Task: structure prediction
Amino acid sequence: MLRSWKPRSRQGPWSAAALLASLAMVAVGHPAAAHPVRPQAGTVYYVSSSGRDAAGGKTATSPFRHIQKCADVMVPGDTCLILSGTYEETVVPARSGSAQLPITYRAAPGAKVTVSGASRIGGFDPVTAADVTQIAATDPFAADSAFSDAVADGHVYSTAVDLGPDVTTVQVFTDRAAGVEAQWPYPGLDLLAPTLQYAGEGSADATVADADLTRPAGYWNGARALTGYWYVSATTTVKSSAVGSVTLDAAPPCVHKVVPKETRYALSGKIGELAHPGEWFYDPVAKRLYVYGTDDPDTRTVEVKRRTLGFDLTNTSHTTVDGIGLFATTITTGPSSTGITLDGIRGQYLSHYTDITRGATDCGSTVTRGVGDSGIVLDGTGNKIVNSDLSLSAGNGVALRGQNNTATDNVIHDVDYMGTYAAGIAVQGNSQTVTHNTISRVGRSGINLQWNEVAGLTPGKDLIAYNDISGYARMSLDVAAVYTCCSAWMMGTSIDHNVLHDPAPATTSTTFGISGIYADNGQSDLVIANNVGWGNREGTVMLNGLGTGSHDNGVYNNTGGMTLFYVKEPGQSTGTRIYNNLGTIRGLTGATDGGLVLSNNLPAETDPLFVDAAGHDYRLTAGSPARNAGIALPGINDGSTDPAPSLGAYQYGAPVWTAGARR
Result:
């Protein structure tokens, strides 16, 4: 069925002569790379990390030093060609292009260009026993701790640096890999597979009881706490602590309690925990950064996050950013932006934060932390991100806001490591297109689909199709590869031809609600068709009709089973039709009482005779009872070579469709 994708090839370093020759070709309009320079009216400017902003910038031998210098001088039709290097800046264009003459920022042929939000720091010195004594004057628990042991072993270094007053936005990198803030338990360095600790027996309300909490009474007072249970990740502070327990300032929102053996938690903000590889601790009062290392950090490249945005396109339109790398930074557009194209972006560590709740006590603002403002944010209309590789974000890979925007052929992984409703691609607004993306290893959902109107624009349906999503539900439950909620009329939004498989919850607690597609709490007027799933506890499709009811949904030709969650009440599922599906259907009683209609679904006890179910090849064999058994639905199940359509996502004899990024 699916084929593994391969990243686009990137050429190695060019010789100076070869690069100059290629640039000379580009200057006269000849294509020379995977991202060819299209001839257009206007001036070509050049940027190099060894250039000068006072230079002319119009030849490869007299380039500007900063991309921002290009942004200051370019007019519609101009192109900025960027030579290999790391550029520590936030680019804010002085003007937009036009529909006929866009402004373009492009990596030069063969160049490896990185716009970085991080800056290098140094001046590290070993922390000594005398330093520990001084620290203990304000934090007496530091004197006899894992930290003091690590100091005695020569593994802790520090430097003076101002990283601002908010520790929850600090991010530290060593040789381009992010460290973790010192915490208990030590989570390890895989942000999507941390070591988890669970509240023990006796936990209740705002108190975590756990025999593994062996630190002295008062040790954890004032620490920051991260909790996670069911669909809610939240943060708060520790009000008081004793051996065997900590009491939080507030119980986790939404659920309003700590649940024994179900609530996971972690504690940070205490220097006494700085004792493991990759960890750091920042003291915002003393403005000093401490790191754990096996050697002198000054022999490595240690960087800290300094800038949130690499390109600020908030007030920009008709602009292309092509072939650019992002490190510890991201790109945003604004509500008035149109005609923005992001092509071939290679982004790592797009967004970072560790404070989810930010003082809120309501459920909604907690669970939606990062949904609208993290990752690459495409707001406005008629913008797109394509062919890009995005990874490592506390929140989204991409946020699609506004209307008529597109995300296609992107590879996105290791995002939403804080486990909120952020996603690989968070879809808001309406009339959005999300197709042919490969999304894996995400804290909650691969695609979070939230339909809402955009002021002044005629609303329309979204298209979510041909995406390959796996490794979801790692940090949150009651979720799906494609999750949509709540009580919205979706105007015929289509979720079709997606492959949704192998969720990977890290928690050992209850795993309710993991499905391929989950229309939660009364979503209506959806078309869910030709999707394939495996490994999903609730099946490929789950409909939850609680609240306003779930009406006028068409669930057609899916493979992998489904769960229907309706109360036994008339009118809960009026107009919803479930036809031509393969796999067990659970929860029929409440659904059919509510008006839902089922037809031509293969009985659960009948073997559909797939080509290779064990190998996840769900095409039909010649003897399959799913052949010639479907209701004809034009535009949904065309293509079979039989007189009547097949059941399930693959029509017998038709070309086999595939999902995921096309590389």
Confidence is low (pLDDT under 50) at residues 1-39. The longest helix spans residues 16-27. Helices lie at 16-27, 67-73, 129-136, 146-152, 363-367, 588-593.
